[in-house]
Give the backbone structure.
Amino acid sequence: MTFQKHKKDFLNKKDKSKKGSIDGEIKKLVDKINSLENYYTTSSCSGRILIAKIPDSDKKNEVSYLFCYHKKINFNQIRKIIDEIKNLKEDVWLRMEGAILHIASKTIEDAAELLNTSRNTGFRRSGIIAVRENKISAELISTERIDAIIAKKGKVIIDDSYLRQLIREANSKLEKTHQKINKFYNKIR
């Protein structure tokens, strides 16, 4: 199957993400990439702030989100969630995760050009993750991240002052990742 056929088939598939749609903050970039002849996106996230219940097993598929938002958050949103976690047996974490894109390229040269552009616009953790006969898959990850435990086995272990600071930092990092998305949008060709 040719690259163009892979691309057409993939882009015509139903969105299988939990959210079921492309994040608004990254949609313009995704549309631009998909309009280019030698590329298409296979997944994307514009960055997010979440509160997650982490089981003792620490298995990714057993993690559940109590809150997940792709825009800036405020203290009251998070405080409300924290007030509801007191009876949980799991640890609870506040996380901020930067933007991530998975992009298929037609050739290794196309992938190399994509990676150079991505790194020059702040997606420092970028690389080729798969090489197949008709496509090269790259993963682009922005470096912004926060992982902070906020409750241990149902006991909240942070105070409001620290929570406010975490929220400020998470919002600042989310804004940075959105700026990188815009910078990448302006540079990719």
Q: What stands out?
A: The mean pLDDT is 92. The chain has one domain: 3-187. The two ends are 25 Å apart (CA to CA). The longest strand covers residues 125-132.
